[in-house]
């Protein structure tokens, strides 16, 4: 893993050093810089608006308490994403919510597989209404996914991270990420097919 290069952002490094000494104001600057990213990531992982604010705040509190363990080996954003992902993963495992139920309209049957749905969201010339339907469908498929699958699929399909970036956040080798991603996509495709058969 490439060491973090302090010279790229000396102000951020100063804030981190200050927060590691217990300076809440310094940590506040980091919160201002990263809170939108944290809220977005938490929402994509948990997908419950009523839970997002509390969970995001918990992530930031946990990050402040753990910031002395940050060693600059990765970027602060990657480290914070790791804290967020782990916290949301624990939440999802505890909740073990009932699978979401929803119907698939006949117009959605032309999608070959779930990952193709994600690709279609940003396709040039995509009809806005169709795009909204596809986005909703992908989200609901993710709601049904086990916590392990949801985390890796969100990071790849929704966040658009590379295998290497996901490996850094989850502390996994790229090869392991690829295997887990393949299996998660396969299970998502099976889920998609089962939903189509229910119609």
Task: Give the CA-based shape.
Answer: elongated
Tally the structural domains. 2
Task: Give helix and strand order, one letter per element, not per position.
Answer: HHHHHHHHH
Helix/strand class: mainly alpha
Beta-strand segment tally: 0
How would you sum up the major sheet?
A: none
CATH topology call of the largest domain: Arc Repressor Mutant, subunit A
Please, how many helices? 9
Q: State the distance separating the first and last CA atoms.
A: 48 Å
Quick gist of this model?
This protein is 71% helix and 0% strand. With 199 residues, the protein is mainly alpha-helical.
Structure keywords:
Arc Repressor Mutant, subunit A, 199 residues, elongated, 2 domains, Rna Polymerase Sigma Factor, Chain: A, disordered N terminus, mainly alpha, 9 helices
């Amino acid at each position: 893993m490439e060491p973090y290069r302090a010279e790229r952002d000396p102000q951020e490094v100063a804030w981190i050093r200050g927060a590691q000494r217990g300076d809440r104001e310094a940590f506040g600057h980091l919160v201002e810089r990263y809170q939108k990213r944290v809220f977005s990531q938490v929402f994509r992982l948990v997908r419950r608006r009523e839970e997002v604010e509390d969970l995001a705040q918990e992530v930031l509190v946990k990050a402040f308490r753990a910031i002395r363990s940050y060693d600059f080996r990765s970027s602060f954003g990657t480290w914070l994403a790791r804290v967020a992902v782990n916290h949301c993963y624990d939440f999802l495992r505890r909740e073990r919510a009932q699978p979401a139920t929803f119907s698939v309209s006949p117009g959605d049957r032309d999608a070959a597989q779930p990952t193709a749905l994600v690709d279609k969201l940003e396709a040039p010339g995509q009809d806005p209404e169709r795009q909204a339907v596809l986005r909703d469908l992908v989200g609901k498929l993710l709601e049904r996914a086990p916590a392990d699958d949801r985390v890796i699929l969100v990071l790849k399909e929704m966040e658009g991270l590379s295998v290497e970036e996901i490996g850094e956040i989850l502390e996994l080798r790229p090869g392991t990420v690829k295997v887990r991603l393949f299996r998660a996509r396969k299970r998502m495709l099976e889920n998609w097919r089962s939903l189509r058969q229910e119609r």
